[in-house]
Amino acid sequence: MTFRRATPDDLPSLIAMQRSFYSDEGYPFDETTAAEAMRALISDASLGRVMIAEDAAYLVVTFGYSLEFGGRDAFVDELYVLPAARGRGLGTAALALAEELCREAGVRALHLEVEFENREAKRLYARSGYYEHTRHLMTKRFSPVPSPRARGEG
User: Fold this and answer.
1) Is 4 helix (H, G, I), strand (E, B) or coil?
2) 74 bridge partner residues
3) How far, CA to CA in Å, does 95 sit from each of 51, 113, 130?
4) Which domains, and CATH codes, for the chain?
5) Is 103 helix (H, G, I), strand (E, B) or coil?
6) Up-side HSE of residue 75: CA atoms within 13 Å toward CB?
7) Backbone φ and ψ of 3, nearest 5°
């Protein structure tokens, strides 16, 4: 089974797998928000890539920029393999694909996050060359507020 670039026609499968992933991890899931975000990422290659291995797995890589790393960086935003498809090398293949996509895009560093207690995923990532460091990922959520210019006021 191989990965291919996702298209808008893949949205139902992607959202179904994402729902399973979020349920497995106990993350809140809003299908409307998820579909809008996935659709935007699929349609704008400057944001990143969404890859799918039929109805078995998906990989999302998003692009950013880092002064520390000297240019473009990326994040494995989501990597999920359905339980029935695990143990077939899809996770390893997805990480290798993420690196290939990043090299093609001129990315200098690829990051990912993993739950502290997810030992299986941590082993997979370590085998692929990822390492833990002493920094903590911190997050602040907010809703974008349109600027006066975007609202037609400026």
Assistant:
1) strand
2) 63, 110
3) 11, 13, 10
4) 4-127 (3.40.630.30)
5) helix
6) 11
7) -90, 150
Query: In sequence order, what are the beta bridge partners of 66?
Result: 71
- Interacting residues of 45 by C-beta distance below 8 A, sequence separation 6+: none
Model confidence, pTM: 0.86
pLDDT in tens for each of the 154 residues of the chain? 799 999 999 999 999 999 999 999 999 999 999 999 999 999 999 999 999 999 899 999 999 999 999 999 999 999 999 999 999 999 999 999 999 999 999 999 999 988 888 888 888 888 998 888 888 888 888 877 766 665 566 5
Nearest to 139 by CA among 113, 108, 102, 107: 113
Listed in sequence order, the residues at least 6 apart from 59 whose beta carbon sits closer than 8 Å to its beta carbon are 3, 49, 50, 51, 52, 76, 78, 79, 94, 97, 98
Looking at residue 132, its amino acid is: E
Q: What is the DSSP string of 41-88?
A: HHH-TTTEEEEEETTTEEEEEEEEEETTTTEEEEEEEEEEE-GGGTTS
State the virtual CA torsion across 33, 35, 36, 39 in degrees, nearest 10: 160
Pair of tokens at residue 115? 């739950």
